[in-house]
Design goal:
Elements (H helix, E strand, L loop, with lengths): L2 E6 L4 E10 L1 H13 L8 E12 L3 H10 L10 E5 L3 H13 L4 E5 L2 H16 L1
Parallel strand pairs: 2-3, 3-4, 4-5
Antiparallel strand pairs: 1-2
Length: 128
């Protein structure tokens, strides 16, 4: 399954992994199942790791329609989202989503370490 996730409650972190060909229907199904997961908390921060994504059928029109319906973002406005997009395909998808996303902080990074550092920095600043 190219779109999977893991929830780390102790770190208040949702991690989504996208690999191979990511199909839009599959991504929506994964997000719908997330809402039913007992560990899910919409206030958790998010890392979307698209490092291994090689193809997709996701279009801007479909993304825009799903964003309007709320299907793409089950997270609250408190939640911060860091996207790891080292390749051009993943980076383009992240920018497309950024154009239609509503609420919360959102940044795109070329490496996982940069994304993790950004979330950690923000968490430390809030704890002070």
């Amino acid at each position: 399954m190219p779109a999977t996730y893991r929830i780390d409650s102790s770190r208040r972190l949702f991690e989504q992994f996208m690999s191979g060909k990511v199909e839009f229907a599959e991504a929506l199904t994964m997000l719908a199942s997330l809402r039913q997961d007992p560990l899910f908390d919409p206030r958790f921060d998010v890392i979307v790791d698209a490092s291994e994504m090689t193809a997709t059928d996701i279009s801007f029109q479909a993304t825009s329609q799903a964003a309007s319906s709320g299907a793409l973002n089950p997270f609250s406005k408190e939640s911060r989202c860091a996207v790891v997009a080292p390749g051009e395909l993943a980076y383009g998808m992240a920018r497309m989503y950024e154009a239609v996303r509503r609420g919360g902080e959102y940044e795109i990074f070329r490496s996982l370490s940069e994304a993790q550092a950004w979330l950690a920095e923000r968490s430390e600043a809030e704890a002070s």
